[in-house]
Each structure stands twice: as C-alpha cells, then as structure tokens.
Write a structure and sequence with these properties.
- A 4-stranded mixed sheet has the order 2-1-3-4, with helices on both faces.
- The longest helix has about 35 residues.
- α3 links the parallel β1 and β2.
- It has 16 helices and 4 strands.
- With about 400 residues, the chain is mainly alpha-helical.
Length: about 400
C-alpha cells in the first residue's frame, strides 16, 4: 500500500465532503450543543424548594421563645409562621375559619380542624416537649443550658456499603453530550463514506482509480480522509465544550469531567474508524444509492442498540450488567465508555480491558472490510448477498457478474 497515494485519496475525500450541507449542519448542531449544555445547566433557575408554609396560632406566655423554638425545629419542606393570640377562643375561631393550620395552647394542647397534619404536628410536639423539659429542669434546679445539653439529640450518621455512583447535573449533561457525539458522528461520516463508495461505483470513477492504485490503498485513503474530517469536527466540539466548562463559574466542575474529555475524543475516533470501514464495506456491496437501505440494517442495529442502552446509563444505572457487557463490545463501547467515565462509574481496569477489546475489534474489522471491499468494489448489477460476503471473509470468494 502506497502512503502517498492513500494521502492523496484522503485529501480528495476531505475536499469533497467539507462542501456538503450535511457536514456544515452537523458541525453547527454539535458545537451549539457542546457550548450550550454546560452553560444552560449553570444558569438554569433552580426554582423553589417545594416547601409549604403553615401558620400556627399560639396562646400562652413566652410567645417570642415559642416562635424562635419553632424556627429551630422546622425542617426541609415546611415553613412555619407563628401568630400570637391573646386567648383560646380567638385561636379556636381562627382554626375553624382555616385562617391558621393549627393552634397551640400552652402548656400542651394542639387544636386542629377536621384532621391532624402529621408533619406540622411533629414539629409542634417537639417544641412543646422541649418546653416541658425546660420547665421540669428549672423545678429541679437546673438552668436552661444544662437542660438543653441534657436533652440534646445525638448526631447519627449513615454509611452505605457499595453505594451506587451519584452524578451531578453537569456530569449528566456531559454524559448525554458524549453519548450523542459518539452516536451521531460515526453514523453521519460512515454514511458519507458509503455514499462516496456508491457514487464512485455508479460513475465508474473507481475503475479509473483502481488502474492507478490498489483497492486497499483506495479504501485506506477514503477511511483516513473521512476520519480526519470527523476529527477536525470533534476537536471543534471538544474545544467548545472545554471553553464552556472553563468559563462556567456558576457550577462546580467535577474531576470526572476532565477525564471525560480525552476519553470522548479517543473513543469517538475508534468508533469513526470502525463504522467508516463497515459502511465502506456496505457501499461496495451495491451499485445504486437506492439500495443503501437494504444493506444498512446489520450496522444500524448495534449503533442504535448501543445508543438506547447508553441512555439508561446516562439517566439511570451506569453500572448495570448489560452496560458493563456492552462496554467491552467494539460496536457499542464508544457510546458507553465515555458515558461511564463522565458519571465516574467505571474502574481503570475496565477501561484497560475495553480498550484492548476495542483495539482487537478494530484490527479484525479492518481486515474483514478490506477483504470484502477489494473483492466487491468492481461488482455491478445485483446486490452482493450476505452468504457471498461470508465466503469472502473466510477467503473463498465466488461472485457472479
């Protein structure tokens, strides 16, 4: 194989494909998504915390103390406002009119309308118990600080063994962008490669090219040109994503984000090589663009299947058995490994194993694609069947003109 000739073929592919509308549109979409994703996540309003407000009437001495104690005991999801009232009848009327949610009559009575609000009752119960403890402590000769120390709750912590990996919003956004990039780029540039092969066959340009260079050189140059074009597009996307992360000061960027960026580049590059070779192989099987849909299914199944599983890894469990298995399969790993790295849900040993499997898969697929391509590229007429493809892969080609 001549390196100079392959480089010339690659340059020709780059010149032709950069002029297409599809290339320009996909580039614009990916760059916009890469920049907008982290920025939108950072500036998107959080909204309210979902807390509800309840007003409570209080009748009794030390109204200011009761108000402060309520503020100390209320938890997330409930804001309590205290309305101090002079006598019980006024408080009861307010409860009956539903002006207030409940009334507290010192030293230990709570009044409700129709039903007891469990969440609110829990807070008021704790306040009244605390007040009662202070009063009993005073009767026993203890001051308020001693009573507070005596009844203060013990801090209890929670530890979880084998806790599932948690992701921040920015990690989820990165994982989604990685999945989208690894799904769109190989598909778009793979189909561009297939269309290029079909066009050359239909116009018989391939016959002229093969009179000067070998079929394997032509295939290598075509794949190299398409991959280099995709790499340029990928660099623009990763550059935009990096800039968005660096200039987004409103959110904390997790360490996994910086491991994700090079991972995305490497694995998307691997996907481009694999799928460009496979789509080139498919293009050599047919002579008309109208027949493309008949041969694309075997390639689209793992591509779409990997995308669907990757979605579950982005928004759900990134360490399920299915996700782990598909991370080692070359046709689906490029969509899953970057997602798992973004979510910090993959071990270094798994990355090494997936990389070795990907390298072996690329080598095997390139050998298979080259063998089929050089056998079928000059075939015209009816589509080459899958049985014939299998015979070619096994080294026993038999094609009819």
């Amino acid at each position: 194989m001549s390196f100079v000739q392959a480089r010339a073929v690659a340059k020709r592919e780059i010149d032709v494909r950069t002029r297409t509308k599809a290339f320009k549109i996909v580039t614009a979409i990916l760059v916009l998504a890469a920049i907008a994703g982290p920025v939108i996540t950072a500036v998107w309003p959080e909204g309210d915390d979902g807390a509800r407000t309840a007003t409570v009437a209080y009748v009794g001495p030390d109204g200011d103390w009761f108000t402060g104690a309520v503020d100390g005991f209320e938890g997330d999801g409930l804001d309590i406002e205290v309305d101090l009232m002079p006598e019980r009848t006024t408080a009861e009327a307010a409860v009956a009119d539903q002006t207030v949610a409940a009334a507290v009559i010192a030293p230990g009575t709570m009044i409700w309308n129709e039903h007891v609000d469990g969440q609110l009752a829990g807070v008021l119960y704790n306040v009244l118990q605390f007040r009662g403890s202070l009063d009993r402590g005073t009767d026993l000769g203890l001051d308020s600080e001693q009573v507070t120390t005596l009844i203060r709750g013990v801090e209890v912590g929670n530890e979880i063994i084998d806790a599932p990996a948690e992701s921040s919003e920015i990690q989820t956004v990165l994982a989604f962008l990685g999945m989208l990039t690894a799904f769109i780029l190989p598909q778009v540039f793979g189909q561009l490669t297939m269309m290029s092969v079909i066009e050359e066959k239909a116009s018989r340009v391939v016959e002229v090219l093969l009179s000067h260079i070998s079929a394997r050189t032509l295939l290598s140059g075509k794949i190299a040109g398409v991959v280099m074009l995709a790499i340029a597009q990928l660099c623009v996307v990763i550059g935009g994503l990096t800039a968005a992360l660096l200039f987004t000061d409103l959110v904390d960027i997790p360490p996994a984000a910086w491991r994700f960026l090079p991972t995305l580049g490497i694995w998307t590059l691997a996907a481009l090589v694999v799928y460009s070779a496979m789509f080139a192989l498919l293009g050599s099987l047919i002579s008309r663009q109208e027949d493309a849909s008949q041969v694309m299914m075997p390639v689209m199944i793992p591509l779409v299947g990997g995308y669907m599983v990757a979605q579950t890894a982005v928004f759900g469990n990134a360490e399920s058995l299915l996700v782990r298995i598909l991370s080692f399969i070359p046709l689906t790993a490029p969509m899953l490994v970057p997602v798992r790295v973004a979510r910090d849900a993959i071990s270094p040993l798994e990355i090494v194993g997936a990389s070795l499997a990907m390298f072996a898969g690329i080598t095997l697929l390139l050998v298979m694609a080259a063998r089929v391509y050089e056998t079928t590229i000059l075939h015209s007429g009816t589509r080459v069947g899958w049985k014939a493809v299998w015979r070619i892969v096994r080294g026993r080609p038999r094609l009819s003109s």
